[in-house]
UniProtKB/TrEMBL annotation:
<dbReference type="InterPro" id="IPR016167">
    <property type="entry name" value="FAD-bd_PCMH_sub1"/>
</dbReference>
<dbReference type="GO" id="GO:0071949">
    <property type="term" value="F:FAD binding"/>
</dbReference>
<comment type="similarity">
    <text>Belongs to the oxygen-dependent FAD-linked oxidoreductase family.</text>
</comment>
<feature type="signal peptide">
    <location>
        <begin position="1"/>
        <end position="20"/>
    </location>
</feature>
<keyword id="KW-0274">FAD</keyword>
<keyword id="KW-0325">Glycoprotein</keyword>
<keyword id="KW-0560">Oxidoreductase</keyword>
<dbReference type="Pfam" id="PF08031">
    <property type="entry name" value="BBE"/>
</dbReference>
<dbReference type="InterPro" id="IPR006093">
    <property type="entry name" value="Oxy_OxRdtase_FAD_BS"/>
</dbReference>
<dbReference type="InterPro" id="IPR012951">
    <property type="entry name" value="BBE"/>
</dbReference>
<dbReference type="Pfam" id="PF01565">
    <property type="entry name" value="FAD_binding_4"/>
</dbReference>
<dbReference type="InterPro" id="IPR016169">
    <property type="entry name" value="FAD-bd_PCMH_sub2"/>
</dbReference>
<dbReference type="InterPro" id="IPR036318">
    <property type="entry name" value="FAD-bd_PCMH-like_sf"/>
</dbReference>
<dbReference type="GO" id="GO:0016491">
    <property type="term" value="F:oxidoreductase activity"/>
</dbReference>
<dbReference type="InterPro" id="IPR016166">
    <property type="entry name" value="FAD-bd_PCMH"/>
</dbReference>
<dbReference type="InterPro" id="IPR006094">
    <property type="entry name" value="Oxid_FAD_bind_N"/>
</dbReference>
<protein>
    <recommendedName>
        <fullName>FAD-binding PCMH-type domain-containing protein</fullName>
    </recommendedName>
</protein>
Length: 534
């Protein structure tokens, strides 16, 4: 036994020495390739490493996970050549790479890994927003947040906007490339639908724009997850027109106020409303203070691209049962509406520039798409399960489809969830306890709710939204091409029939699968998956 331990210790020391040599070679390579500028690279023994690593981490449950690997280096590029050096040196010396924009990856895959050693390219310094009012476009650094885009686009021009998400601290690097749903999608489509160019570094360390990358790769970047194919440095986006004033509302209904009937009706009404009107539902279980009983609180949040006197007749005709009144309505600029929907209780637009994580917490998300209305009995079953979860802080967010987002063909860009969907569901739970047992209890409960929803949502495959990443759908246990068959498990959920085309793009631009993560797209050259429609 003693001999075995001695041999094992020698092997461990040898492996550690070899790994230290790899890291040393990478560091020297990066310095040489970036003209000996060391301000962009941080090793674990530097004072800035921990601060930078934690600076945009939104999901704390991965910080204490012993099964994950932390990065060998953090790189905060200030120019394209820094990213080119990070990629080229990583491939040369066997260090993987993760790209972090805002740190909102639901499964933490932008900053931790269950695979081998890797570096993080943190894009926080590449966050400029350059608006060209004459052409109605803007170049946006991939490290910018959605809030920074909103601020730069809307503060100085009340009639300019961009369709993107509700949470303003989301980084655009992942958000745009995964789709980007929000309050303007029924009028103008997703964020990805309004990306017209991109600047990226590919697996060969080349700097490419739309022309030099080609239309197939540009197609893949819009909805296929850019981190599968390279490192996007910036996007050129098409701005959209909004009126000087929009009208918003937020109405809460409980079970005693016909919440079940209203949600059931909303399912078919919301996708058919005029494109200028967006109404979503946020449903959660809550205690009734007077009795101590449980109820469901359904919040109907809406935005109308127009004034209140225009909205009231539309609602009276389309959804009178909701009981919307004049005193429920607020008129404001579009950029002010982004502050309101984000949950800020101040009106100063500069809050949109904040990059600070909103909560010091853990969270988990899942998603579904609904193609047929859930009947009233179904909602009663769902509500019962939610109310029985006394200590399960879940919110179910229902986002309406229809309008422009449904008019675009499923093959126009890589994002496939189009016509035929009534709405998307996000199941979201946030908790502040750090005990592993609490985390496991929350995750188990959410999985059981997701299973309960099976008969009511899409199937074959059960569609899911890439930006609400869910490792429960499956994960790749191998780097390189060995994970190709595994990647079909979640590939169909996220990409539907676009998965095979995405895998072919991957095979062309990253055949060695350098840009691997636990839910990345594997190169089509490694295997030939069958379409789920066959």
């Amino acid at each position: 036994m003693a001999k075995f331990l001695f041999i094992f210790s020698l092997l461990l020391l040898s492996a550690n020495a070899a790994f230290a040599e790899v890291e040393s070679q990478y560091f020297d390579c990066f310095l040489h390739s970036s003209n000996f500028t060391n301000e962009a690279i941080y090793a674990p023994n530097t004072t800035a490493y921990k601060t930078i690593f934690r600076s945009s981490i939104q999901n704390l449950r991965f910080l204490s996970n012993d099964d994950t690997t932390k990065p060998s280096f953090l790189i905060q590029p200030t120019r394209a050549s820094d990213v080119q050096a990070a990629v080229s040196c990583g491939r040369r010396h066997g260090l993987g790479l993760r790209v972090r924009s805002g740190g909102h990856d639901y499964e933490g895959l932008s900053y931790v890994s269950a695979g081998g050693p890797f570096v993080i390219v943190d894009l926080a310094n590449l966050r400029s927003v350059e608006v060209d009012s004459a052409s109605g476009t803007a170049w946006v650094g991939a490290g910018a947040t959605v809030g920074e885009v909103y601020y730069n686009v809307g503060v100085n021009n009340r009639t300019a906007a961009f369709p993107a998400g509700i949470c303003t601290t989301i980084g655009v690097g992942g958000h745009f490339s995964g789709g980007g749903i929000g309050s303007l999608m029924r009028k103008y489509g997703l964020s990805a639908d309004n990306v017209v160019d991109a600047l990226m570094v590919n697996a060969d360390g080349e700097l490419l724009n739309r022309t030099s990358m080609g239309e197939e790769l540009f197609w893949a970047l819009r909805g296929g997850g850019a981190n599968n194919f390279g490192v996007v440095l910036s996007y050129k986006i098409r701005l959209v027109d909004v009126p000087p004033q929009v009208t918003t509302f937020s109405i809460t209904r409980t079970l005693n106020e016909d919440a079940t009937k209203l949600v059931e009706m909303w399912q078919t009404i919301a996708p058919q409303l005029v494109d200028d009107l967006w109404i979503r539902v946020m449903a959660s279980a809550a205690d009734v203070e007077a009795t101590g009983n449980r109820t469901i609180r359904a919040i109907f949040q809406g935005m109308f691209l127009g004034q209140r006197q225009e909205l009231l007749p539309v609602m009276e005709k389309s959804f009178p049962e909701l009981g919307l009144k004049d005193n429920d309505l607020k008129e404001m600029s579009w950029v002010q509406s982004t502050i309101s929907f984000a949950g800020y209780d101040i009106e100063d637009p500069s809050i949109l520039l904040s990059r600070k994580p909103e909560y010091n917490s853990s969270f988990k998300g899942k998603s579904d798409f609904v193609r047929e209305p859930i009947p009233e009995m179904g909602w009663e079953e769902i509500w019962k399960f939610m109310m029985e979860g006394k200590d399960e802080p879940l919110t179910m967010i229902l986002e309406p489809w229809g309008g422009r987002v449904g008019e675009i063909a499923e093959t126009e860009i890589a994002f496939p969830h189009r016509n035929g969907n009534l709405y998307n569901i996000q199941y979201f739970m946030r908790w502040f306890e750090k005990e592993e047992a609490v985390t496991e209890r929350h995750l188990d409960w959410m999985r059981r709710l997701h299973e309960l929803m099976t008969p009511y949502v899409s199937s074959n495959p059960r569609a899911a939204y890439l930006n609400y990443k869910d490792i429960d759908l499956g994960s790749s246990s191998e780097e390189g091409n060995a994970g190709c068959w595994e990647s079909r498990d979640w590939g169909w959920n996220y990409y539907l029939n676009n998965y095979e085309r995405l895998a072919k793009v991957k095979a062309k631009v990253d055949p060695e699968n350098y840009f691997w993560n636990e839910q990345s797209i594997a190169p089509f050259s490694a295997c030939k998956p069958l379409s789920y429609k066959e």
